[in-house]
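Researcher: Please generate the 3D structure of the following complex. Treat every line as part of one assembly.
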Amino acid sequence: MQTPKFDLEDVKRRIVDWRNGQESGWFSATPCSTDYVIHIFECDQLGAENIIFDGILKLEESNFSQRVSLWGDVADEYGLESYLGHNWYIKFMIGNDDDLEEISFHPCEKDMTLASGKNLTTSISEDELPHWRKK
Amino acid sequence: MDLSKKRCGECGEKAYKKQKIDGQWKRPWKDFPSVFLTKALELWVCGECNAHAVTPRDSEKIDVAIEASIRSQVSQFLDVINAKSGLKFETIAVRLGYSPSYISSLKNEKTTPAFKLWNQLKSISINPKIEMEQLDPDFDIIGSNILLRA
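Model: Done. Output below.
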């Protein structure tokens, strides 16, 4: 069974530091993370950030899905079940410069299988997709 | 945080630059599908795909700039409606279906309206005299031929 590249407790420590104003992380693809959360909950930017932080802090090793290649680097994918009414697709990595790069945090747009074999179902309909995710 | 050597999560290019942003903010905020920024802010922007990155403390800056922009715009829409229609703010409030104190808090930039009201005020301020006459609850709906059935 595949295991995460990045230590989850280390990721959570960076999230706590980030929330406390330290420069330990950043959002590199807002349409897949903060903008998507704003679209779902009609919250402000800080509200979206907090929803994402709280979601990542809920993750456990059992939520891990797989390692994926991204622009020549490796990121970890996780699936979070039943958080604020949705199943969530989450992707992040820790870069060479030691910063946490939060890449994706959005409702599962297709069924997702975790490394444990557990299945997370799609949790957003075509109608609910933000316009920038519609085909 | 310095993103100048980091790769954009949208296009993969290492092309981030600090950029002053104003005008069209084609990203959602609360119930606004997009926002027009009249209060500028500085963010890291990808020079290749124009995607924004968000670093620690940016979120607060973004919220402050957007909120100030929307509040300032609404206050100006109300000034334009008042000046061009000749109606008092109390009358404008009644015609829009809001309390005078709520309209006053918008006028004084103390409250952020929902997108629906912001958009309505924007639309009315383009032609306030006609729009405000039509919003009068005593407006002649028979004479204006907008009733199709008895």
